Amino acid sequence: MKIKEKEFEKLLDELKEVANQLGAKVRFEKGDFKGGYCLLKSNKVIVLNKLANTQRKVMTLAAALKELGIEEVYISPKLREVIEEMEGV
């Protein structure tokens, strides 16, 4: 799927909403890391590198959501395709 640069900000917002539906908190932090999904004192947390570009944030968040499991929530077909393409990222 080819995504235009302008669309990444909208995708990021949509992915954050999906994370919220799944009960996961999305945090933006500075550091030398890519980011991903983890459990912190039984809370679902997805950490994204604040310094990464928007495309990298979308890729990391989509991969974390895929790991978390998206089967139980409604996601638009386009957004689901973006998440499914994150296999192995």
Descriptors for this entry?
89 residues, 43% helix, 3-stranded mixed β-sheet
Q: Could you explain the architecture of this structure?
A:
This protein is an alpha+beta fold. It has one domain. Helix content is 43%, strand content 21%. The protein contains three helices and three strands, in the order H-E-E-E-H-H. It has helices at 7-21, 54-68, 77-84, and strands spanning 24-29, 35-40, 43-49. It has a three-stranded mixed β-sheet. The longest helix is centred in the N-terminal third of the chain and has 15 residues, at 7-21. The radius of gyration is 12 Å and the shape is globular.
Total domains: 1
What class, by secondary structure content? alpha+beta
Percent of sequence in beta strands = 15-25%
Helix content: 40-55%
Low-confidence stretches: none
Order of helices and strands: HEEEHH
Shape: globular
What Rg do the Cα atoms give?
12 Å
Q: Largest beta sheet, briefly?
A: 3 strands, mixed
Q: N-to-C terminal Cα separation, in Å?
A: 15 Å
How many individual helices?
3
* Multimerization state: single chain
The averaged pLDDT comes out at: 88
In total, the number of strands is 3
Strands of the largest sheet, in order across it?
Answer: 1-3-2
Secondary structure: elements and pairs:
Elements: H1 7-21, E1 24-29, E2 35-40, E3 43-49, H2 54-68, H3 77-84
Parallel strand pairs: 1-3
Antiparallel strand pairs: 2-3
Task: Describe the structure concisely.
By secondary structure, this protein is of the alpha+beta class. The protein has three helices and three strands, in the order αβββαα. The longest helix is centred in the first third of the chain and has 15 residues.
